[in-house]
Amino acid sequence: MRGADYVIKRLAFAVLTVFIAVTINFALFRLAPGSAVSNLSRVPHATPETRQALKRQFGLDKSKFQQYVIYLQQLAHGNLGISFANSQPVSDNLRTALINSVPMVFLGTIFAIVLGTLTGIVAAWRRGTKTEGASLTTALTFYSMPTHWLGLMLVILFAGTLPTGGMSDEFLIDPSFTTHVKDLGEHILLPSLTLGLVLFGEYTLIVRSAMLETLGEDYVLTARAKGLKPWAILRRHALRNALLPITTLIALSLGYIVAGAILIETVFSWPGIGRAVYDAVLQRDYPMLQGAFLLLTCSVVFFNLIADLLYFRLDPRITE
Amino acid sequence: MSALLELDELHVWFDLGENRELHAVQGVSLSLDAGQRLGLVGESGCGKTTTVLGLLGLLPPSASVSGSVRFRGEDILAGGEETIRPHRWTDLAIVFQGAMNALNPVQTVGAQIAEALELHEAASGREARARVGELLEAVGIPADRGSRYPHEFSGGMRQRAAIAMALACNPSVLVADEPTTALDVMVQAQILELLDALCRDFGLALLLVTHDLPVVAQLCDRAAVMYAGEIVEQGPVDALFHDPRHPYTRLLFAATPDLHGREALASIPGAPPRLDRPLEGCPFHPRCDRVLSRCLHEHPALRRLDGDREAACHLNDVPAEVA
Amino acid sequence: MSVAVRQPGPVIEAEPIRSRRGIVWQTIKRRPSALIGAGILLVVVVCAVLAPWVAPYDPHEQVGPVFGHPSWSHPLGLDDGGIDMLSLLMWGCRISLVVGFAATFVSMVIGGTVGVMAGYFGGRTDNVLMRITDYFLVIPDVPLMIVVAAIWGPSLFHIVIVIGLLLWTSTARVIRAQVKSVRERVYVKRARALGAGHTRIVFRHVLPQVAPLLIANTVLTIAVAIFDETALAFLGLGDPSRISLGKVIENAFQRAAISTGAWWAIVPPGALVAVIILGCSLLGGAIEDALNPRLRVAHLSARSFRLRPLVGRGPDAV
């Protein structure tokens, strides 16, 4: 298989990075001063039996190194401890939160990619004209707005027309399927719109840059010399080549969207991963914080890996 | 009888911003008959590539053009892109230098040739693939290589593929811009032979742009020498070599390294002039070894000499007088 | 190399650049985006520095009702504590800018050192340093900042350190690439041949060449640092004893400014942050662009070359 070594190398790197992230995670939390953070068993409102079980599970009375090993073992079993806040397994909380986050983030990202790509292509195509200036200015302006502030602005603008908090209306009793979907749709609109607006600026710049690069390549001149019309050249030659850097850069940025998600979910009270982090901080729910942080780091590694593999797939020149 | 391709007083300016302009091509006139081969010669930066891009309308938006480009009598430049595009590839095809980037790296070679066919000949699918195979064979590439990507080809093979692509729509004029630069000597010879054979077999007119004089000598009947955006001499290749009527031509031929190393390597001292400001007198005078006082102030016009030769030099006005 | 196809003509050099150091100033003068960016930053910095003398009211003193409406004496209204918004913004700028600059300084020092060492020494050092950078890159910044601030407590110092520790990676990468290319230049090789020590070479030859890029990167990092500070403040992890722009937004959010309809407590501080970040992005981006000149001709563009009416050349133009 072409480039099997390349894929394996990237996978190995990803695994190694996850391992390092896990270690750093452990170091951050367990080696922090004081036992408030490092003592996973101090779950408030927990029974003494639960506390003992936790102590045993995580070897909290053993040496740090042994704790590390046990930590890895427990991780392999999916045991991330028990949340201080709701006394549920951290992994369960995280799972729910993740499921809630995904549709909103996904929608926002798609919107950002589509809008960013369109404005980027327009800016590159109409280089040196006012249209380019306008699209760049718009992109930069939205890009410069603090995520949470933009969210608040949208809340101010749309309060009354669209729901501005939560994922669904708690007061809907036994809604029909369509009502439920409509309700979700209304709730998801503002947060994903915020995410999209904050993100697209970066994509505009990426796409414009990549397009300008390809538009200066000789094969574009050849295509023009062959008598192709501008749109065909743009689509078949320029865009197709620009897709390489565009896809990888976008994939790379996906891992970092979580930062924006945290702020947005806080503004809109969206019960996702970001909000989980915020709540965990507020409530000093260290096991949750630790688990969420690990999850977020792994998602970055994951998307980086996707980016690498995508690039490999799209560029026929990579054969190592 | 009008020539197949005629350039008449072609000028190209490039906008440099801040109200400055680069006058890259200054009134170039050429003519090419069917089946004829013309070499366009000169140092890097003399404007020969710009001339050729200009005639195909492939200039960037910072360029402005004046003059006329007539193909079979019809001025194709007059309407800009719209009048030129119909002639691209079907009448006038071009092969670029350094075919690496001239071919799209993410498309197979065959697909790129087929693209030209599908666009102009309304051949598609199996028919196009067959034709692609024929073209590749004609330039010495096995037909099955069409499914490979450009980076899988060697430099010489890429150049051949580019030539095959250029011939796809049966043009009457083939423009070759430095087709052998960046290739090693052995491959150069092969490509030149290929061009020779193809032009003969298909009756193509050839406009060959190069700074390499032996290449012109081998392939072309006539040559035009460019300096600082102008044609300074034009005529049959032999005449240019044996009896140059412009000091630049003479020095250029003298500067070509002799393969047997018998003569010392001569080079022309100095550098070409900047073209972003108007020049006074003959553009070559700072480097000329036979400069007259007239040359500093009076721009020599390109004048017809005996036969079908032209030269732009005041020395041709001076009847057997020593400067 | 298909030079002949791309460039109009190498006989002319475009705007000769005297020295790389002059680039920053030249860029500001020539490009409107840089000018606007620099202008914005200048105004903001001046305002922040002069706040104690220029701000109309004391930022801790209640001068009116909670969420008082904008009026002539208080053009931006009052916040949740009855404090004049305008003064609050001016004072808030100070802390935000201080955090931004300090954090950027930290990241610049770390990133610059790593970048220069990796680029200059190459080989093993380079590999190791780049590996470390890669791992740092993978860590999502905001979550890490949150975690660290949560564990070690919110104080201005901690925040600056945390932000700085996360932002150095991009600086390192950029500097490394530049140092690598500078290292190969003739005069550096000559200096080495003459026996100049590494420190000397780095400081006298490499750094000046790298400086403009470092400046561009610094400006852009400041933007990120300021944003990070507002994010942290918004999540309740800012320094509670200081007023920063982020804190102003957070206060408004916490005290239900929106439901009371007091938009003036939220819109201006965020708008100010946006403007500062925009200024940094414009300036930094313009310098970066100037250092990477796109001499490339666009082979395809919406506009086309222009046609001029026929020019005649007289029999013998003088």
Keywords:
heterotrimer, A: about 325 residues, mainly alpha, 13 helices, about 75% helix, globular, C: about 325 residues, 11 helices, about 65% helix, about 0% strand, disordered N terminus, disordered C terminus
Report on the structure:
The complex is a heterotrimer of chains A (320), B (323) and C (318). Chain A has helices at residues 4-30, 35-38, 48-58, 64-76, 90-125, 130-144, 147-158, 177-215, 218-225, 230-254, 257-267, 273-282, 286-314. Chain A is 75% helix and 0% strand. Chain A has 320 residues and is mainly alpha-helical. In chain A, helix 5 (90-125) packs across helix 12 (273-282), helix 6 (130-144) packs across helix 8 (177-215) and helix 8 (177-215) crosses helix 10 (230-254). Chain A starts with a helix and ends in a 6-residue tail after the last helix. Chain A is built from 13 helices and no strands. In chain B, 30% of the residues lie in helices and 23% in strands. The two termini of chain B are 41 Å apart. Chain B contains 10 helices and 12 strands. The mean pLDDT of chain B is 87. In chain B, the strands form 2 sheets. An 8-stranded mixed sheet of chain B has the order 6-7-8-3-9-10-12-11, sandwiched between helices. Chain B has a 4-stranded antiparallel sheet with strand order 2-1-4-5. In chain C, helix 10 (245-254) runs antiparallel to helix 11. Chain C is globular. Chain C is mostly helical and 318 residues long. The longest helix of chain C has 37 residues, at 85-121. Chain C is built from 11 helices and 1 strand, in the order αααααααααααβ. Helices cover 66% and strands 1% of the residues of chain C. The interface between A and C is large, with 65 and 53 residues. Strand 4 (63-71) of chain B pairs parallel with strand 1 of chain C, so a sheet runs across the interface.
